[in-house]
Amino acid sequence: MGNQIPNHQCMTYLEIPRQSVSSRGVISAFAFLLCILFAFSLYMMTLTLDPRNFESLLLSISEILLVTWLVTIGLRMDISPPRDEPIRFNRARQKIYAYNFKRQWWNPFDKGQVVPVSYDWSQVRAERWSQTGALPNGGVIFKWGVMLSIVAPGTNNVIDRFHLSTMGADQHAWAYICTYMQEGPSALPPPGEPKDHNDVLWCEFALRLAPKVNWPSEMDLESRTAP
Hints:
By secondary structure, this protein is of the alpha+beta class. It has helices spanning 26-48, 54-79, 171-183, 205-209, 217-223, and strands at 8-9, 13-16, 87-90, 95-102, 113-120, 124-134, 140-151, 158-166. A hairpin with a 3-residue loop joins strand 1 and strand 2.
């Protein structure tokens, strides 16, 4: 599992943590700094703006709208996702339960929504992915992770996909999960002390503003118990 520690591990089920946003709080801090700089820029703009100059007025309004949009989507990206997006692997039922979060990143009015799903373990496939991109300064950025693909029963037709990990333990997490589902926790090294995803430090303001994990009651009970 690399540096990842399971949220819970017992004979019945394994729960692993997931984060769709890494380094929570960084984007919010950047948005706050941008607001301060923009407030100063806006003040200077009011001193020099000529209301009779239509082109200058239109440019100023466009700048205000653009910065407002950037700040809003930055804050949404940082505080809208839940504190954790765990996946539960129920060995007793041979099922997987994913606490997925979906939103349109470009829409500042979209708070997003949690879409919990459950599938049979036999439907799960793992795909390792990687992406390479160029930076403006000529550098290269490299991302990788593991995607879980869900196929229709008895076929290889993919009906759903969601991340297992991004820039994290990748294939090691998948090997750990497969060993747990096939052989049980006795075949794995003892996990470290689990971290409660709702237990956050006072300084982690983005996580404190983020919604707590709240499974649907029926799915919560089913995912933590044997048949």
